Amino acid sequence: MSRFIVQLNRVDVLTLSGIITSTLAAAFALQGLPYLAITWLFIAMLGDALDGLWARKRGIERAFGRYLDGFLDTFIYLAVPALVFWQLGFDGAWALLLWPWLMAGVVRLSVFNEVGNLKESDGLAYLGMPVFWGVFILAAYALLGLVLPQGLVNSLLALGLNAYAVAMLWHGRFFKFKQLSHIFALTLGCALLFAIVQGVLA
User: How far is CA 159 from the centre of its chain?
Assistant: First the structure.
């Protein structure tokens, strides 16, 4: 009998790396470096994408891995982005509008823990819009905040987050990235972009 309550595999360790990347993102946000925080969220997204691909490739998918992934997703795609939204100016009364999005995200992740991915003829799909799109919404908000008035950007975000909350709970099939090259290009490209932006603004 094992001395521990669970036996972690290599995929689980990769999943747990999200603790490091998401807490780094939170730390940079609290230090007033929100664009660098977004850089680390995209790196965390890469790890989150790779663990599922690796598990399926090695044939070691299991319920525990899905639950572990869901817990980490709460930090990577909900809690830490909410902090970064606040640091970028979506604060005060505006921040109350984060609650519907956060609640919908937690419900969405809970449903995913039960049903997992949907199987289609060309691969897998999501039931309900996945929570990781929140990082892309955060990225768009951060970039628009550089060129538009804060009130206008906050209004656009309020509308976008409410629509996103509905989409996460919508009983429909949503696209899932399947090509590893696309995942690397998107996550690392965005991470580099925001690191450069932070460097320019420093």
Answer: 19
Which run of H or of E encompasses 124? strand 123-127
Residue tagged 């399947």 (tokens)? 178
Q: What angle do CA 158, 164, 167 make, to 5 degrees?
A: 150
Sheet holding 173-174, edge to edge: 118-120, 123-127, 173-174
Sign, CA torsion 13/14/16/20: positive
Q: 146 is written with which tokens?
A: 């550089």
pTM to 2 decimal places = 0.93
Handedness of CA 65, 70, 74, 76 (dihedral sign): positive
Contact between 158 and 105 under an 8 Å Cβ cutoff? The reply is no
Report yes or no: 6 and 64 within 8 Å, Cβ to Cβ: yes
Say if strands 123-127 and 118-120 run parallel, antiparallel, or are unpaired: antiparallel
Question: pLDDT by residue (tens digit) across 111-142?
Answer: 988 877 777 666 678 888 999 999 999 999 99
**How far apart are alpha carbons 72 and 13 in whole angstroms?**
12
